[in-house]
Amino acid sequence: MTRLLTALAALTLLLVAAPASAAEDGKTVFATYCSTCHGADGAGDGAAAAGLDPKPANLTDAEFWKTRDEASVTKVVTEGGAAVGKSPLMAAWGAVLSKEQLTAVVAFVMSKKPAEKKAE
What we know:
Blueprint: H1 2-16, H2 26-33, H3 35-38, H4 62-65, H5 70-79, H6 99-110
Helix pairs in contact: 2-6, 5-6
């Protein structure tokens, strides 16, 4: 329970933090708003991840990407996990980030998708 409260406190701090400028790239936006849960590299191993159930998505996992595309990533980043039937602990960032920041962070998340292996 303490871990969950710690994680929720960290999310609250992120929500009240001053929005990043539109000039920041997706990696910087991700580091500011997403890495606490998803980890610096998007592996779902951020500092708050230990206290979350379910765990944050591993954005570097090929299995994760089997059912996701850019539109679904945009929707979950903008509207939150509950909007797509996932964890309500995944915050909605649409009211916090500018359109440019949303576009940039979605592009950064999409860059975590592993390259598809070609059949030999």
